[in-house]
Specification:
heterodimer; A: 265 residues; alpha/beta; Rossmann fold; two-stranded antiparallel sheet; 8 helices; 10% strand; B: 616 residues; Elongation Factor Tu (Ef-tu), domain 3; 4 domains; six-stranded mixed sheet; six-stranded antiparallel β-barrel; 15 helices
């Protein structure tokens, strides 16, 4: 429990730095376990309030239960929810059959970029974790994106002693990653500790299957698991050597490197 | 060699520890890391196979180093471009291992990785011996505050596992580290490539009796937050989301309890902790300690801003506008005298400049080069900084987190420093007087906040500076009339009136005492809630010497400094507005009123409840 409180203290510090330094700030919420923990941490940092909008980039292919859950919590926690969608791409018939990286780029990366451009956000808070996959392991807590929303991983600014990059030229924005040091197990341990409401797609409901990572319905697959409670998930994760995102099709090959360089979350 | 598997050894991790791996490029950091994970069964299923397949595709031999190089470019060039974090659980402890690149041009990544580590593994190539980067990294680890270092002498296979080669490197490097008082926790001979002394004991080096790398990780002690030290609680922000006015921040040292009296530096304001606020924690906590991000409410509604450091009254931080530090520079543009930078220390941000570059430290042999005008990229130097306004800090040997700072050049952090010395500035004496006076100040029933609410504005001082016949008096009168006509409470403090009254006992020439008395009178008037308008008339040409004293004595009231001159000239430090040549006085007065609004002294419109920069 002590290690969870240490992670919490650091994340809360980062969230407060973000709120203090960015006039036009927003947090990305995909309704998954990570960004929901992030949302909970914001309520911790601001004593029950969430003083910035929550963005959901809706690809229209999300699992319906996720949308229900989103709207329920938004009402209960009085959230300022902003939903963005790349309507042009959808109207032109974009889907995963056109290629997974192509689809992710159009509906998620471009959906996010359009939303950022339209609302003029200068800071975006995201729930990415370093242990998810290799490119995320190289992120800074405060990571700049250029005018095109691209990430230059070759030349990242130094970050030390909890002093973060909070100044940036006009037209660029900063991605803020308060969960970088958390692992998948930490997320579930914290959900249990704080009793955070989560979508039950993460649990086996008698079919011997559950989702370990949530994304779009066509590109996310459940794993074989009999974990019916948070405790059982934690127990299962302690003994697995299978990568968390193994059920996420976009990670195959060099998918994530290419996606993230161009501004994917 | 036996392979332990993760599943056999995993128990519930009770603590987390961040470890950085540093060293010269090509000394085998990534290989060590890959080997450590592979030999402890900590890799995700299929990871080795996936990387092996990529290697086959590119027609090259598989290496353990490739396991954590996520980018195509890293794998193609065989180098680690940026710091990567990997996660590893062993014997009830969760490690976050930071692989920091060793190339010279990537020092900023090494610094970013090492600065958040609690312990370090420093690699040296047995064949190549101690190199420039081995020394530089060792020196920087100590500057960055990493106290536990284990030295790993790698590639022992290339020197036939000879004890004398190892002993020579150990002796040389221990001597180097001892010059800045670092004693390595362990020095371990290994071959990362063949897994010797990584997770399992080497049979090829029977002469070595010490721990393996895996054992050495377990031997690193968890650093406990410094709760025994004097309290340091830098204010991060002030929230007023609901009825509570919460002072938020992270305690960097010591602990705080409900009922403790806090002193905020550099403003010297004090109040008592009424509650410690927390979300989803029942019952509410009554104390908090170092490392925690907390929020407190106070018994009195005093104005406090981000950047101030709360402490107990008997152990306050240092306050000065001048400090000496050991600094490392990472910027593309060299650190130069005369250039403006932003200094960030805990949550304080202040404009600064380099007052002196004392010497450049050669980290390869710790030799010194005296003086100089600039500090180049990747150099370490001893430097004195002068800040635009006084800041609160500690010596890094006393309180680590409030004893270090970063320097921002334009948009980026370009350097970091640890404070070695307080340099007494000329305001030291008056600052001490003001602090003692403020601590002992006897307050009436009406607080400063109540007065501000009643008047509809905060107290402040408008300081009009400039030479003779520049129109200061005329503008001061104009401004006073305009403010009072708007319903503000403003008062013109003319130094001439002090000279003939309060100062009647003094000789003509005691400029220091004149300034001190003037400042104390201004301080009293500000305490009544007034906007004091003053000119530096009584100081004649010596007004530039009097200004810092007045500022020190009226601290922390907002000062709006307005300079007037006949032609362009060098402005006194911290000037807010400047009017040169013939002036339109109505326009000038209006601009000052705008500045009062911008600084949160006045509400944006007359009659409206003031919306200050921070909530009341």
């Amino acid at each position: 429990m002590k290690h969870l409180r240490q992670l919490e203290d650091q994340s809360v510090y980062i969230l407060r730095e973000a709120y203090k330094n960015f006039d036009n700030l927003a947090m990305l919420w995909s309704m998954g376990k990570d960004s929901t923990v992030l949302l909970w941490l914001a309520r911790k940092a601001f004593f029950g309030h969430v003083p910035f909008p929550l963005l959901h980039v809706d690809t229209s292919y999300k699992i319906p239960a996720m949308i229900e859950y989103r709207d329920r919590l938004a009402a209960e926690w009085r959230l300022n929810l902003v939903v963005g969608q790349n309507k042009e791409a959808l109207a032109a018939g974009m889907n995963h059959e056109k290629g997974r990286v192509t689809c992710c780029t159009a509906l998620k990366t471009m959906g996010l970029k359009n939303l950022v451009a339209e609302k003029g956000y200068t800071g975006i808070i995201l729930g990415v974790r370093a242990d998810e996959e290799g490119t995320r392991a190289k992120e800074r807590y405060f990571s700049p994106r250029d005018k095109h929303g691209d990430w230059d991983f070759r030349d990242q600014p130094p970050e030390l002693w909890d002093q973060f990059k909070t100044a940036f030229p006009p037209g660029t924005h900063i991605r803020i990653h308060p969960l970088l040091d958390w692992t998948e197990i930490n997320i579930w341990e914290y959900i249990k500790l704080e009793n955070i409401p989560f979508i039950d797609l993460y649990l086996d409901k008698g079919t011997g299957m559950r989702y370990r990572s949530l994304g779009c319905a066509p590109c996310t697959f459940p794993i074989k698991s009999t974990a019916k409670t948070v405790d059982e998930i934690i127990e299962e994760l302690r003994h697995t050597n299978v990568a968390e995102r193994s059920g996420r099709a976009q990670d195959e090959g060099r998918g994530m490197e290419l996606l993230r360089k161009d501004g994917y979350m | 060699m036996t392979t332990k598997t993760q599943a056999e050894t995993v128990t519930k991790p009770s603590e987390t520890m961040q470890i950085v791996i540093v060293g010269h490029v090509d000394h085998g950091k990534s290989t060590l890391l890959g080997r450590l994970y592979a030999d402890t069964g900590s890799l995700p299923e299929g990871k080795i196979e996936k990387v092996q397949a990529i290697c086959r595709q590119q027609g090259k031999e598989f290496e353990y180093a490739f396991l954590f190089d996520a980018f195509l470019e890293e794998q193609e060039q065989g180098i680690t471009i940026d710091t990567a974090r990997t996660f590893f659980i062993w014997n009830s402890r969760q490690y976050i291992i930071i692989d920091a690149p060793g190339h010279k041009e990537f020092l900023k990544n090494m610094v970013s990785g090492a600065a958040r580590a609690e312990a370090a593994l420093l690699l040296i190539d047995a064949l190549e011996g101690v190199k420039e980067q081995s020394r530089k990294h060792g020196y920087l680890l100590s500057m960055l505050g990493v106290k536990q270092v284990t030295v790993v002498v790698n590639k022992m296979d290339l020197v036939s596992y000879r004890q004398d080669v190892f002993a020579g490197i150990e002796k040389e490097y221990r001597e180097f580290l001892s010059q800045f008082k670092v004693v390595p926790a362990q020095v371990i001979p290994v071959s990362a490539k063949f897994g010797e002394n990584i997770a399992t004991r080497s049979t090829r080096m029977p002469w070595y009796k010490g721990p393996t790398v895996l054992d050495a990780l377990g031997l690193f002690k968890k650093e406990t937050a410094s709760t025994e030290q004097a309290l340091r609680f830098p204010v991060q922000d002030v929230y007023k989301f609901d009825a509570r006015r919460i002072i938020a921040g992270r305690i960097t040292a010591g602990h705080v309890k409900v009922g403790d009296r806090l002193v905020f530096s550099p403003s010297n304001k004090t109040a008592v902790v009424q509650t410690i606020e927390a979300f989803n924690i029942e019952p509410s906590p009554t104390e908090a300690r170092a490392g925690q991000s907390v929020g407190v409410t106070l018994d009195e509604q005093i104005f406090i801003e981000r950047g101030e450091i709360a402490s107990r009254r008997d152990d306050i931080p240092l306050v000065s506008s001048t400090l000496r530090a050991n600094l490392f520079w990472l910027g593309q543009t060299p650190l130069a005298r005369g250039r403006k930078y932003l200094l960030r220390l805990a949550t304080q941000e202040v404009d600064c400049e380099v007052a002196a570059i004392h010497r450049i430290v050669d980290t390869a042999d710790l030799g010194h080069q005296e003086g100089g005008q600039t500090v180049g990229k990747n150099q370490v130097a001893e430097v004195t900084f002068r800040t635009k306004a006084p800041i609160a800090f500690d010596l890094s040997s006393i309180s680590e987190i409030t004893g270090r700072f970063v320097v921002v050049d334009e948009y980026d952090i370009a350097g970091g420093g640890i404070i070695t010395e307080l340099v007494r500035d000329e305001q030291e004496f008056l600052r001490d007087e003001a602090r003692k006076r403020d601590f002992a100040w006897i307050k009436g029933e009406v607080g400063i906040e109540a007065r501000a609410q009643h008047y509809g504005h905060r107290a402040a001082i408008v300081l009009l500076t400039g030479g003779e016949h520049t129109g200061k008096s005329f503008l001061a009168r104009k401004l006073e009339s305009l403010l009072v006509a708007e319903g503000r409470h403003a008062y013109l403090l003319d130094g001439e009136n002090l000279r003939r009254g309060l100062d009647a006992d003094m000789g003509e020439t005691d400029a220091t005492e004149t300034a001190r008395r003037y400042g104390e009178v201004a301080r009293l008037l500000i305490d009544t809630g007034l906007i004091v308008i003053s000119t530096t008339n009584p100081f004649g040409q010596a007004y530039r010497q009097a200004l810092p004293s007045i500022r020190t004595l009226v601290n922390p009231a907002p000062v709006i400094a307005v300079h007037m001159s006949k032609a362009d000239e060098e402005l006194p430090p911290n000037t807010d507005l400047h009017f040169a040549g013939p002036k339109n006085f109505d326009e000038a007065a209006k601009q000052i009123i705008e500045e009062l609004k911008r600084k949160g002294v006045l509400a944006q419109a007359v009659g409206v409840r003031p919306t200050f920069q921070y909530s009341i």
